[in-house]
Amino acid sequence: MTPDPRTPDREVAIVAFAQTVHRRRTDELSEVEMLMPVLHDVLRQTGLKTSDIGFTCSGSSDYLAGRAFSFTMALDGVGAWPPISESHVEMDGAWALYEAWVKLLTGQADTALVYAYGKSSPGSVRDVLTRQLDPYYLAPLWPDSVALAALQARALIDAGHTDEPALASVAARSREDATANPHAQLPGRRPQGDYVVAPLRTGDCPPVGDGAAAVVLAVGDTARALCARPAWIRGMDHRIEAHALGLRDLTDSPSTRLAAERAGAFDLPHGPQGMGGAPNVDTAELHAPFSSQEVVLRRALDLDDGVRVNPSGGALAANPMMAAGLIRLGEAAARIHRGASDRALAHATSGPCLQQNLVAVLEGDSRAR
Amino acid sequence: MSAAPVPDTLRAPLVVEFPFTRSLGPVQSAFLTGLRERTVLGVRAADGRVLVPPVEYDPETAAELRELVEVGATGTVTTWAWNPEPRAGQPLTTPFAWVLVRLDGADTTLLHALDAPGPDAVRTGMRVRVRWATERAGAITDIACFEPYESADVHGTRPHDGVFDDPVGGIVAPARLDYTYSPGRAQTGYLQALTERKTVGERCPSCTKVYVPPRGACPTCGVATTDRVEVGPRGTVTTFCIVNIKAKNLDIEVPYVYAHIALDGAGLALHGRIGGIPYDQVRMGLRVEPVWTEGSRYPDHYRHCGEPDADYDAYKELL
Amino acid sequence: MPDEPVAVVGIGQTKHVAARRDVSIAGLVREAAQRALEDAELTWTDVDAVVIGKAPDFFEGVMMPELYLADALGAVGKPMLRVHTAGSVGGSTALVAANLVSARVHRTVLTLAFEKQSESNAMWGLSLPVPFQQPLLAGAGGFFAPHVRAYMRRTGAPDTVGSLVAYKDRRNALKNPYAHLHEHDITLEKVQASPMLWDPIRYSETCPSSDGACAMVLTDRAGAGRSPRPPAWVHGGAMRSEPTLFAGKDFVSPQAGKDCAADVYRQAGITDPRREIDAVEMYVPFSWYEPMWLENLGFAEEGEGWKLTEAGVTELDGDLPVNPSGGVLSTNPIGASGMIRFAEAALQVRGQAGEHQVDGARRALGHAYGGGAQFFAMWLVGDRPPGA
What does pTM read for this prediction? Predict the structure, then answer.
């Protein structure tokens, strides 16, 4: 690999974030009907109109919807007229945000609208996700997403990195924190329940539901004009691992660690390269759909108890597919917007057992003393 | 004109099902043919490791891998998960353990099912062996599952040229996913009006265009369409084509005319079949009206309504 | 600070065919990627990131297949992005990759698009039944044919123009070893005698269904300096989208297409595309879209596009060759078709197009579109660095 070029010098920030109230079903709403209010919300927050936006990018999945080209109808909610500069990733919206961030870094646009949505209620998401797997060796066995996460959880327990009570405490903490999150699908502590696929119990698994989210990105002074305290993206990177579980150490997430390094998570704020060790952040929003995956991510990132993990309740409190990763970036940014965090790490994941991971480091301007 | 009410939610099953035909390439072909012959093959990676199941490309170096070796049908469980409620398509219908198994001679693990009486009978490190399917066709399901089997781990491999008689070149992978589709608020209102043989669109509060069928949002303004507006029943053929090729899912005699029809009062055209007139007499600007048949949600077709043709200028914006 | 210039230094395609029964999906994409790397004389370790595109996942029945393809594309430990913008996706994917270089996020990016349509059936994938909705009353061509009729009505084009395009593109395909259709005995009479499927579209004026992949290696100025063969330089690139269906939509000449072209020409400093552009690879899935796009892209005045086709201007030896590769009419792995247009444009300005080379091509346009003629992606490439 060639050495990385120096960090791009255009400043980009998340200046607005909105999400739906995530629910088990939204049968009365089409995708665009579910999505449109959050688009209006972020535009209202910034005072921008669609025609003011320089670039629009979204993330969604045809397989989740059960319909090809499902994203083309969601575009109706944007009001793409006159025509807009627009793109779409068949990935979680966190990667749409990444594409938009790159677009702003090129200087071709100063603002971007990013959105993502997913309705898991029409299908059985455990079964739908089996279609993500190697179509020759894995998909014919229909191993569902909980089963794969359970294999990972068992490996963690065997390695002595966690145990069932520790997993239960991750689940309890997440849902308890979610009581302060009006958008959460599962606010408040609840029983761990039975094994879904042992060692994972109902409580260790994310809720299945429908939801959408949107953010607005802006550069430099535009960001400052649109938001009192922009959440500056100090760095962002994503990495993928080998696909087959049997080729990976399931107790570790080297792609998360590498993405975090490249995103500058271990650098000192505003300063030179750090010496490694724990990331210099006060908050981490981790996209860990299963309690056991938080354990993997904490280990990979060397997070210590000084870092507030998933104050939103995380994916264990609301996990709208294709949007849950973008929501981690949005939640971390919103915390900076309201002064509850100065420097936060946001993470998104995709694929079986954390195959692909994205890390962003967000920072607020230091406040007047 | 009336404000759009909240309709009762419509639902219907949506089945996405297809028997995908997958070609395999040389490595996967050898592995799956081997399973048919009760032989498990791996592939040697650049660093000397033996990968089972064999992959076509080295996950570390991306190098093309082709050096096949034979490994054992016995192995060791490296991690497991107890599945109390098997789901459709999974290897066993009774509760079983998902396992990653390192076969003897391999350095990586293979995902499959382990048939065991209960979770207490499963542990990491336990010894297992392949239970072969009775009927084997060259697919990962030729391994019916694994079963507990005490044996010594003889960690060795034998070279294998991957050549079998009658190699498997492809697999058929049927896949069915079941969804429950609900069309949302605006479409539901439209569909309910159709049951009374009325075509009801929604007007955009911003640009005042009437959308038929309504999609919940005015696509140019990005706001919810609100007021319900009945359009038609008559309309104008804006453009059309003559279909001479029979579509697989349709029981319509060819040739027939497939047309874009702008119903009176609608901001854009919808599509329909033109009937009751020879296909070669259909023209742009033809004035038409719907013909309904019993039990059909949509008009069966549209027919000439007797009015003189519309001027091109009257509908060219709707083309 | 200006953007980093972006150069195309490697291009690879598979031989496009109806069904590649000898390879897996990984084997198919790998073949194109490997050829692109060999063209650039680079190895997998030289690639910093991978950007992949394809049309709906239902075509192969694999949800987000890039997850499974990471190993085959040497992406393990690297960033991998997956783009999906319907039929324009091959073009959009290349533009997303170009932006990674332009923004100086990465130096060398592998971009690839593919479709292995033989794994299922394209018409099944394109028309999954949606409950309550009226089924489309015609096949794929039935969606486009009424717009062609509208074009003919609007411009008075004679009904022979479509067959001229098909005859030209199929002859051009004979000079392109990677093209799917090689109809050695093609004649204009045969095209005009082929069955009228969706009047006014004849069988020979429609595109095939193909298995295929296309890959490119994009790099920065320093990377271009090490290139063993002449690079193609990106002088402009843009995407534009408009809604699927809306009141006032012009299906014959969508505004998003006009705006996209105008943006690309502005970036590239093009004021007279007809004179300043030497070759065009445009997305023509049905023959009549050539004259339609000639107008939409500013090569002809409104209503005049068919006259260029009729006069032979768009022939390989005409003064504005369109689809020297044979185009989508000769090769259509849907998700890859847009990238093939972009790559073929780059081959022309690199002087690497072989038998279908347009003599002295210095600037070429690659064009892709998709959805209900709503998503557009284009780039303009040149034989010199931008500004040189």
Answer: 0.97
